# Entry
Amino acid sequence: MPELRRITRALLSVSDKSGLIDFARALSGHGIELVSTGGTAKAIADAGLKVGDVSELTGFPEIMDGRVKTLHPKVHGGLLAIRDDARHAASMKEHGIAPIDLLVVNLYPFEATVAKGAAFDDCIENIDIGGPAMIRAAAKNHNDVAVVVDADDYARLLDELKQHGGATTLALRKSLAQKAYARTAAYDAAISNWFANELGEAAPAYRAFGGKLLQPLRYGENPHQSAAFYRAPEQRFGVATARQVQGKELSYNNINDTDAAYECVAEFDPKRPACVIVKHANPCGVAVAEDITVAYERAHACDPVSAFGGIVAVNRPLPLAAAKALAPVFTEVVVAPGYDGDALAALTAKTNLRVLTAQPPGAPVLDVRPVDGGLLVQEPDPVSTDRSAWWVVSATQPTEAQWDDLQFAWTVCAAVSSNAIVFAKDRQAYGIGAGQQNRLDSARIAAERAGDRAVEGVCASDAFFPFRDGVDVVAAAGITAIIQPGGSIRDAEVIEAADEHGMAMVFTGQRHFRH
# Structure
């Protein structure tokens, strides 16, 4: 086959040495000359394999603490030379440049260094320069050169060498080149976004985003849409770092809803057991209680109809009692920091139930949403329940019990699609009105869902009441205290309505739209 290219010389320079020795030994078995750098060369030599140092290839030593070692014409010429071009061949002969047919590079661990909270200078030193330059050169010349940036591809390359007598196909080289460019793009994205954060630049002139494939998905939100799940270079605990213990493959909607549930439950004080049930990215049940089992039972009681086929997230290890309480209810996913005793066995008895373990999410980095031809990027929306920043605008003052419920309802409300209204009592959501085009309908939905349970409860609104009609609706449902941002031109009218109903009203000065 004319597209086959035999590998005679390989340059290996890897930070992550997983699988390196077996791979290098297999390459040697095909008669391939090995050239390497620094620690990689030492590891290969220590394994008893013959390997040349890149400084021997270039005739120039590594300098500046290894910052300069592969940035040399004999390296890049060997990677970039078009083998069938007579002029390139003449240049190689004139300058003594030997071809490099295979490049194996994984980059300095910049992302991992940042994730460890390393100092600025340490992060800078872990920015790879020579690696990306070589990767891009080899990928550009994929017609002649194979480039491997991921140890997961070692076996794939070796299979081709075995099948084709030490040669690779153009199809493989193109596939590896695409992956190589995607890797350097994701790497540069991690660096540039970290730098922007270090400089406090909320809107840098250029933004780059990257990610590594976690899994292809069967389909997207609907069966006719293709989809995949990627992990961002910025390492952050949450759904992308969860471990699936059992159950069917996660779907696009499972992942989206699980993320919404786990992000919401993480907003509550970890010292207080909490449970969130999500359906179609919106909480349909939330409760904080003395233990996780009671929290689940109270969360489920909010809206049992919507909880069917939902996602259950908790902020504590799940005990057996909670697993048994879950058993009668069809649930798509359960996600928890861990599972106590026989709880996991009880859950895995339901073979279709997806069971995940994940560390609680950390603070999000950026909120990114696509629009036609661009991206909307914003800082995350943290929820504060600091009472010292709020103020009471009504004649009636909240009781201590109401303050506790107002803080709870405010936390839940921020996780609900706008327009959002949440009714709660005793740290339990009873009625959630979500995603309506007007706040009055959201209030009516919350009141209908809560029924008589709203009596003596509290209400949270993610944005101000534009008219008093919403206040009248929640008052008629039996609500006795309201928390909202304030800021409407009709605030006086809304406050007057609260006073007429004998309700307490608290302004936060901060809204939480969620679209």
